[in-house]
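Hi team,

Below is the intake form for YNCE-like beta-propeller domain-containing protein from Hydrocarboniclastica marina. Please confirm the fields before the structure is written into the shared record.

FORM ID: S-0412
PROTEIN: YNCE-like beta-propeller domain-containing protein
ORGANISM: Hydrocarboniclastica marina
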Amino acid sequence: MNRRLAALVLPALTFPSVVPGLLARVTVLLFCFFCFAGQSLAAGTGYVFVSHERSHTVAVLDPSKGHEVIRTIDTCNRPRDMHFDQSHERLYVACGDDDVIEVIDVAKLEVIDRIETGRSPEVFAISPDGESLYVSEEESSIVRQIDMETNETLAEITTGPEPEGVLLTQDGARLFVTSEIADMVHVVDTATGKVEKNIVVGTRPRRFEMNQDHSELWVTDELAGQVSIIDTENLELLHQLPMVPPGFRPSEVTPVGLDLSADGKTMYVTLGRANHVAFVDADTREVLDYVLVGSRAWGVAASKDGQFLYVANGLSDDTTVVDVESRSAVKSIPTGRVPHTVVIDD
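The structure came back. Fields below:
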């Protein structure tokens, strides 16, 4: 028995008449102690998870321990995109070379389930009601809808070649999908599974992020070196924002990842081979700064407290921690081979 618990229990057992009501409280404490002794931490750990395409692992970083890697979880081959369920009790990981999505128990930090998909799952989204997965299958040119209760396929939505980015509206009524080869964004009615509109953007569109009020959809155009911004109500292209860090040619800038700050003011965009992350004012669309990170900046995630930004660097095999206030890299952490996606359990 630990010392704090003993300090409560022993007086109650020795002098029950002196401390009326304490025994009832001790009973509850004992119940909680023995029920949860030996169990893992619950979700909401604050941990940072990084997937790695070539070491076939997910690294777990603990910010409270100086961003130390506290666990490396073995996965199926080529883990890429990752998302938490609504409770943050489970983390879903798309494994592109094994055609599955694996499920990690966030408390135990271990793989507990596997969901079969089609060929080469890359990016996916979880429906707002928590009932469906929408998975882009790069080699099949479809988005597969999967029932999260039964793991069965509900629908196959035909897209342009090499679909990647997948994002749902807040009500789940529309699904946005990028086609890397067709250079367009498909707008899908999820009730019918039909494409209702195609929006031409820049060359090789990759990933999505919404602004704070969800009126704008930001799309990275990797080989155009820009971000396309779409009006989500009228489904029209509003603006295209080029990004060129000092000392780089436009052809060297390959935007891929995006994330919005918790306060909705700043959009963070990784610039791939340009080895920087751009800080962009989400309202004015002005590029505020470029921050040097690792080689081939790919996935990005911003902490909810607004303090840190985490960038997965695919060629330097590390994850950069960026201090948001100073706009500078403060740490580079070797995490595994070819880091891809970063998510935070906060």
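SUMMARY LINE: The chain has two domains: 3-33, 46-344.

Thanks, M.
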